[in-house]
Amino acid sequence: MKFPKRYLQTGAALFVSSLSAFAATEAAPVVKVLPPHQYNPFGTAGETSPELLAALNKMSETGILAGRRNSLHLFRWSGTPPKLTHLGLWGAKVNNELMSLTALMPDLAFVSLYETSVDDSGVETLLKLPSLRYLTFAPIERYEKAGFGAPQWSYPTIERNNERPRVTGKVLKACSQSKTLESIDLSDAKVDSKDLEALAACLKLGSVGLPNIIDQETVKHLQACRRLSNLVIGNREVSAQEIEQLAAWKGLRSLTIIRAHLSRETLLALSKLETVEALHLADCGLTDESLQSLKGSPKLTLLDLTRNEINGPGLMHVSKLNLKGLELTFNNLNDLTIKHLQQLGSLETLNISYNTGITNTGIQNGPLQSMTHLRKLELRGLKKVTDASCEDLGKLGFLTNLGIRETTTSVEAVAKLKAAMPKTDVFK
Predict the structure, then answer these.
(1) CATH: 3.40.50, 3.10.20, 3.80.10, 3.30.750. Which one for 9-245?
(2) I want to staple 34 with a disulfide (CB 3.0 to 4.6 A). Which of 38, 142, 341, 349 is the partner?
(3) Residue by residue, what is the 3-state secondary structure of the chain?
(4) Where are the domains of the chain?
């Protein structure tokens, strides 16, 4: 099943949560800033103007940190000739002056800023970009887990910038003037419910991330934004009362709660969200016992439990939901508990990446091979899955997609695996 794109638009923190970390050096070398086509890991910058090159170098300089081999930034290029479409910057050195340089980058569609010194004036500058579609102001991701390491774009050692947030909900008035903006995440901002009145004029806005408590006024303004269907909240305790308030919003289709404390009552209240089709509960400390209180709702088809503490037995409660997609990245499944996945008979898409307790034994014992209803399976980061499992993986020919990146499988074994399952797209 192919899920609508809006279900996946939950900010860069979820977009890249299952990618591996950049390497860090033990010393603190002087970093030489190079032209973007020499260090950019997401495409080729190609020939560019001296002004643009100078602007990119200035941006990358803000991300030079002691102990890191590379500057902390994201430049992503697309098209021919290459055009800069994605920009990601981290830290207090990123300011309004730097944002003024985006005037040289008219093709920017995605801008993500994390714990910066940018304020409302800087946001207004960004909103003048003619192609801007997604704008994110979020806390720096600091997730790490023993035995896993930190995923890409997660930086546990970076000190918090306590002189923030500087962005406020007043920028929503400027957002209403944008003809292209589809998503804005203000998780790292100061927002009051009354600020959300401006949402009604944001004609293309489909997704919003908010830091404020969800009250009746908040829901009223969310409802008034006709195309809005995706909400991101978290970084605090989320109460059952807030969820009950959201139940009145009949246009809500996707809810993301990230880095939040969720009580039993809050989890039970989620079942009242009768219109929600996709539910993301990331890094919320959920356990197998927690899943007893997760009743879901009639339309729920995608459940994302990334970065929790689920061992496997609690999946018996999830099996009662009519799910088409389940994300269990960075949990605690192992060779013994992987068998509990077999109860999920309605699944078409399953992601169990970075459950490092799954080894060759778990693959060879056959629980995945019995799940013939699956179409997409992601096994990324299972370091103890080796060439010895390739014959058994070859029995998953009913899949359309199989992801085995960051497993310890050789090029030769993967070539044989692809030959054994010609109708499956094997991504290594």
Answers:
(1) 3.80.10
(2) 38
(3) CCCCHHHHCCCHHHHCCCCECCCECCCCCCCCCCCHHHHCCCCCCCCCCHHHHHHHHHHHHCCCCCCECCCCEEEEEECCCCEEEEEEEECCCCCHHHHHHHHHCCCCCEEEEECCCCCHHHHHHHCCCCCCCEEEEECCCCCCCCCCCCECCCCCCCCCCCCCCCCECCHHHHHCCCCCCCEEECCCCECCHHHHHHHHHCCCCCEEECCCCCCHHHHHHHHHCCCCCEEEEECCEECHHHHHHHCCCCCCCEEEEECCEECHHHHHHHHHCCCCCEEEEECCCCECCHHHHCCCCCCCCEEECCCCECCCCCHHHHCCCCCCEEECCCCCCECCHHHHHHHCCCCCEEECCCCCECCHHHHHCCCCCCCCCCCEEECCCCCCCEHHHHHHHCCCCCCCEEECCCCECCHHHHHHHHHHCCCCEEEC
(4) 9-245
